[in-house]
Amino acid sequence: MLSFPRRPLRVGLLREAARRARSPWARIAGAALALSLAVSPGAAFAQASALLDEGKALMKKGKLAEACPKIEESYRLSPRSATLLALATCHEKQGKLATAWSEYIDLSAAARKEGNKRLEADAKARGARLEPRLPRLTVSVPRAAAVEGLEVTLDGAPVDSASWGQARPIDPGEHKVSASAPGRKKWEAAVSIKRGERKAVAVPALAKDGSAAPEPAPAEEAPAKEAAAAATTAPDKGPAGEGKGAAGAGKGAAGAGKGAAGAGKGAAGTGKGAAGAGKGAAATEPAAAGPEEDAQPEEPSAAEEAEASPGASPKHAGSFVLEVGAAGGALIGLIDSGSFGDLSTYSYSYNILPEGELIAPCNDEVCHASFEPAIGPFAGGQAFVGVALSERLHLGARVLGGYRFGGGYLAVGGPSASLRFGRLWLGLTGLVGVVGQDAKVTGVKGEIPSELVDRNYGRTEVDVNAREGSLPETALVETLAFGGSVEVSLVLADLPSSSWTSGALLLSAWPTFMKGLDGFVIAAPVGLGYRFY
Q1: Structure confidence by residue, pLDDT tens digits, 330-354
Q2: Burial level of 493, CB count in 10 A (0-12/13-18/19+)?
């Protein structure tokens, strides 16, 4: 909320100062200064309002490249919440999603201070809507590349070492990552990133720059140089000093400490020697540069070059994918027929002659029990193993299993595919496996041979001869089932990185429908899982 100083007080003070001045020109200058100071806040506010109106008009016409700078200048002149809202909206329409998202966060904080709860809630909702579409770039620096004095920049802005290896929101489009260090060749890589995309860039070990002039040794190290020159005849310890250094105490080449004339522990490079790798400056065994062999710039390894490829996206395309999680829900068994235990204790009878009857023993082939539907809570887990064909498409196999409280189980699996849409994963899985349910037994029937159906009044089966109370109240019935499952997963937290923990925390549901040999099975598991990719 803007507050303007009282004009009469400021003008009166300055006019009084001008009146007391001895020179007439001083009086005129004082009056002019008083007038400019009195009207400057109002003029700035008026200019900001005019720029805001122009920017909004251009934004309505779709001229975003002209509109956004005007609104930005308006906000610089007069930082108001309404202007910041217009600026974030303009940047969002312009496609600068990370910039707009950051401005919505600032707007939410400003509205909270102003006590404007409606604007605060609106800013939070806008930022939450943008967040799933934000591209994220991870700039990592392997230990081999983290030399002294290393500076990493993104589009010319320094990337603090504390944020190395962390995914950061970034606007879609083309970006440039560069790295430099004293005595090293500069490295640059171009990165193109789209909405919702995750990419990573690894900075390689920078090659030594042979053309770079070594830094002069400090004046106070002159005695160390003289001592080094006097010790050139010492055997087996390098030409210029004791221990592992080339020309000074410690591991440095031409001075105290660890650095001699460049980054790291070497004299002009990263090694421990005076002018190259090794522990001696020019010795035959540990030295890297002697009178007959010049030190060569250190070239990055093939692995480092591959790691630095800007197009690579670790733990994504072509990588192994693993998801594990716990699940729970409901399991509905509609298996109306099957077998249980030992049926040989039962028998049934049917007609074989016009005046004859046969009593036949039961077995699993000719007798079967009938059951009521069984519904109960289900608890278990699931796992997905596959490969990422791209950052959005994962193919593999999924298994789903668990225990049904009250008796029963589910153990199924099959090929699976998942496709990502922003913060949502949608997938399909073909399933085959075994399902069991502990259900109430409603009866047992025996089959009549097909050639005797006519003699038994067209019946194909009859009830078994069971004494009252001999049938179990409930029994476990099992069946082989085939079907499929639909995956609906919401990304609760996306944690991309260059380590093995890269992945996302998912809240998932797998509505499942399967056909058994005798009946149907319906499951509705919901659970939490972590997908490593």
Answers
A1: 998 888 888 776 777 788 888 887 7
A2: exposed
